[in-house]
Design brief:
single chain, 130 residues, Thrombin, subunit H, two-stranded antiparallel sheet, 1 helix
Length: 130
């Protein structure tokens, strides 16, 4: 028998806010895609552990992606690598929601995201989801 716990599994708090980001498939992944070209996307939420962004095409689960995320609290964009773990489809929208967790991110960027999420939460500038 499978039981489900209502306990939150997330390790980090996330902020539900739009940030501009760019991503591309890792050069050794998905030869059918142009791994040289960067795609512009908008995040739906962000935390120190990963990101959810909107995209107009199917992305295979397990794909590795390089990302640059424009995050106002940091001078330079966050440069990280993510692994796609989930795709959310909404029949009324043409955009898919792509969830990726960070497999490679600079410790300073990770800390800056966590700190900014706490600041947004304390000032109620953004909506925090546990």
């Amino acid at each position: 028998m499978i039981t489900h716990s209502s306990q939150e599994r997330r390790q980090y708090k996330r902020i539900k806010k739009d940030f501009v980001a760019r991503f591309r498939f890792k050069s050794d992944e998905l030869s059918m895609h142009n791994s040289e070209g960067w795609e512009m996307v908008t995040t739906q939420n962000l935390c120190a552990g990963g990101v959810l962004f909107k995209y107009n095409r199917e992305v295979p689960i397990g794909s590795l992606i390089d990302m640059f995320i424009n995050f106002p609290q940091i001078k330079n964009p966050i440069n990280c690598t993510g692994k796609v773990i989930r795709i959310e489809r909404n029949s009324s929208l043409s955009l898919l929601k792509v969830a990726a967790y960070f497999v490679d991110i600079n410790a300073e960027d990770k800390y800056a995201i966590s700190k900014a999420v706490e600041e947004f939460y304390s000032k109620k500038l953004g909506y925090i989801e546990p």
